[in-house]
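Hi C.,

You asked whether I'd gotten around to modeling the 407-residue construct. I have! Everything is below, sequence then structure, no commentary in between.
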Amino acid sequence: MNHTGSELPGDVAGQRPFILSSSCPASFELTESGACSLVTRYQFYDSVQQRGVGGTQTALPKHRSGFTAQQIDLGRYLFFDPLLSQDGSLSCAGCHHPELGFSDGLGRSIGIGKEPTGRGAPSLWNMTFLTSFFWDARADSLEQQARGPLYDKKEMANTPAQLLASIRSNAYYPEMFAQAFPGLDGPTLEQLYSALAAFQSSLISLNSRYDQYAHGFHQALTADEVAGLNVFRSFVARCAECHQPPLFTNNQVAVIGTPEPDGLPFDSGAEKTFNSAKLRGGFKVPSLRNISKTAPYMHSGRFKRLRDAVAFYNKGRGHAVPKNEQLQLHWHIREPKLTDEEMDRLVDFLGALTDESLLPQIPQVLPSGLKPVQSLPVAETAGEQKVLATETVATITTSNVTINQGN
């Protein structure tokens, strides 16, 4: 993991200040203006024009920039600190764990009330390139997105007044905000949202074996993975039409007719966001990067295995749409009639999109004194890892409630 910031051992750093990092995260360089600027090989490529959908050496979309190293590091502390929740039991990382692809291994995330929310936690990798957020695309900036889980009664359940009071009354955060936003009065909620956006903008995953292959090192992929890439890009499967490389999403909403888990009511998705019946049952096209780390799949975890999610697209247009629903399915959703071999090769290829080389460092000590999400035990299977993740988060939640009640 990348090392950032200065974390001091002891009883909340032994009453000594937290010094925010002045160094940009890996893959970022410090500009003359003092901001951290992302550097990738993709910046040397042209757009997707004349390259063909699914082409390898194509440019990434525009991304957020202009954050300082200190703002990114402040956002890192805030992201892992349960102080941001109403009862001090849940941090952003509780639902977006670094070792689970910045998701949580659950079909529907669990908030402070211990009840499932409406949908699963999307991965946060490469958020800096996105133009809309949440499964239903209801936010158009990272700052706006941050307000959602912070104040949602089923998630972190805080209020703006309590959150601001908690930050301002903390022994360390006011000075840390002053380091990140020098010359400005604070802390303010806008600064908090900006710091969270800065940290999330630094979560970059662009050095998978697929990327090495795309940049010219063709030995990076196995023969089976290359075969899967060819299926992925084919006119028959048409995966790349929506999951467009190199980001592996087109930043759009699509109605694909995915079913809900048994017993759950139909989710209207982006219909409410855009007040459009055409988008009933529509959801953001997620990036496929690190997809092997983020099971279960779809907006509410309908499919436990990646192979099952691939098979869904192969079963025919609208096969899972409830009988009482008339959805306007995306025109790309057809019936490719892939063989079992072709679907297996697709899964092989999707595994080559994993890159966690720039995982941020989880703070060992937080300004609040509460416990951050810890690293997960090594599990022999992905399924075991998901169980361990749930148990780990539950243990930390219980511990933080105890600490909070004692203050």
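If it helps when you're writing up: Residues 377-399, 401-407 have pLDDT under 50 and may be disordered.

Thanks,
B.
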